[in-house]
Amino acid sequence: MSTFPDYYQILNIPKTATQDEIRQAYRKESLRTHPDRLANASPDEKRRATERFQAVADAYYVLSDPKRRKEYDSLHSSRSDRTGDPSSSGSFFSQFAGMFGGARPGAGAGAPQQERPDAEGVFADVFEELLRPEVERVAPWWSYFGAVCGAGLGFIVANVPGLLVGGYAGNRLGAVRDAKGKSVAAVFNQLGSTDKAAILRPSQRTRQ
């Protein structure tokens, strides 16, 4: 029989923690356990960090929502096998899927199951203000290219005034191309491990 994940213990908070305390605890633990901080880690260290990072995201997903937290607490108080071991969170969302609107626990193999939260997605949502300044440093090639092309066409059509208008319009169109379909999380995931580690390094911004 699997053990029951103690999400309060995983986030290192008391059961009486406020929503703000839950958020701050998630920020601290997710930064500490994010696998991309371990640029030179062994595969086993990466695996354990990833497991811990996912469990921290699971904990935040459950406890940050008042309804999910209430449903979780009803089970939490009745279980004697609670543990802060990150591996205990693995089966939670399939075993107790009915809590969050998924399939009934014990339903057949073809029944839909509540999916675990995407750890990187949770992280990006909470840390968007941290990640955005860094990922926006990605070179806006299409913005530059659009400005040059627009300026050239504008100059042909209307000399200097056309150059200015065309350059601005081309730059804006290029910026749309740069940003289209790319969330902060998506751009962050495309960065190299060194850049990710630098972004994730604790700073004053994360301690506020």
From TrEMBL:
<dbReference type="GO" id="GO:0044183">
    <property type="term" value="F:protein folding chaperone"/>
</dbReference>
<dbReference type="InterPro" id="IPR001623">
    <property type="entry name" value="DnaJ_domain"/>
</dbReference>
<feature type="domain" description="J">
    <location>
        <begin position="6"/>
        <end position="76"/>
    </location>
</feature>
<dbReference type="GO" id="GO:0005634">
    <property type="term" value="C:nucleus"/>
</dbReference>
<dbReference type="Pfam" id="PF00226">
    <property type="entry name" value="DnaJ"/>
</dbReference>
<dbReference type="InterPro" id="IPR036869">
    <property type="entry name" value="J_dom_sf"/>
</dbReference>
<dbReference type="GO" id="GO:0005737">
    <property type="term" value="C:cytoplasm"/>
</dbReference>
<dbReference type="GO" id="GO:0051082">
    <property type="term" value="F:unfolded protein binding"/>
</dbReference>
<dbReference type="GO" id="GO:0051087">
    <property type="term" value="F:protein-folding chaperone binding"/>
</dbReference>
<protein>
    <submittedName>
        <fullName>DnaJ molecular chaperone homology domain</fullName>
    </submittedName>
</protein>
<feature type="region of interest" description="Disordered">
    <location>
        <begin position="27"/>
        <end position="49"/>
    </location>
</feature>
